[in-house]
Specification:
The protein has five helices and seven strands; from the N terminus they run E-E-E-E-H-H-E-H-H-H-E-E. Helices cover about 35% and strands about 20% of the residues. The protein has one domain (about 5-170): 2-Layer Sandwich (Nucleotidyltransferase, domain 5).
Length: about 180
């Protein structure tokens, strides 16, 4: 099975993986996803009805996982773009999930304290990520895309769970 991960931002990045290796990491191109079974999108796929946080986000906060509130005005553009990408992928027949790579890093112990925007932190994350999938030199956005795809892979293969409420965020199962 092929899994895709998409990091939504000014320049969307994506990763394609199978059950063992990284196939592609780079710019988001929808035609590269056509063979995928499922995709994980690193962006809110719903917005809160009231306030700044959705219930699923409040549940992550209770687990000690910090995050930006999906209802924050600065995050709205990213959320809307993520929802558009999700809709296009669903039209292609893909299963689409909302993922949060930082939560996956915490739960899988992929250098959770490392800062991905610092060179040393990014290298630490890539090294730790290599326990799960072969990873070459990647940008921090590509790392998020790879972790998004990894999260979907784990979830689809029965090694994950979801946090629900005003949306749903899938998570990998905690490694003991």
């Amino acid at each position: 099975m092929i899994f895709a991960g998409i990091d939504v931002g000014k320049k969307c990045k994506m990763a394609i993986i199978d059950e063992k290796k990284l196939i592609y990491a780079g710019d988001y191109e929808i035609e590269n996803i056509s063979n995928a079974f499922a995709a994980g999108i690193d962006a809110p796929l719903t917005l809160p009805q009231n306030g700044m946080f959705r219930e699923c986000e409040r549940k992550l906060l209770k687990l000690g996982i910090r995050l930006f509130p999906s209802g924050a005005p600065f995050f709205r553009k990213t959320a809307i773009l993520g929802m558009e990408i999700a809709e296009n992928l669903r039209k292609m027949g893909l299963k689409v999930y909302e993922v949060y790579p930082y939560a996956s890093r915490v739960l899988l112990n992929i250098a959770p304290k490392a800062k991905k925007r610092k060179r040393e932190g990014l290298q630490e994350i890539i090294l730790s990520l290599s326990r799960y999938i072969e990873t070459p030199e990647l940008s921090h956005d590509e790392v998020d895309a790879v972790i998004s795809a990894l999260t979907v892979r784990e979830f689809v293969l029965g090694r994950g769970s979801s946090v629900e409420g005003e949306g749903e965020i899938i998570l990998p199962r905690v490694v003991e």
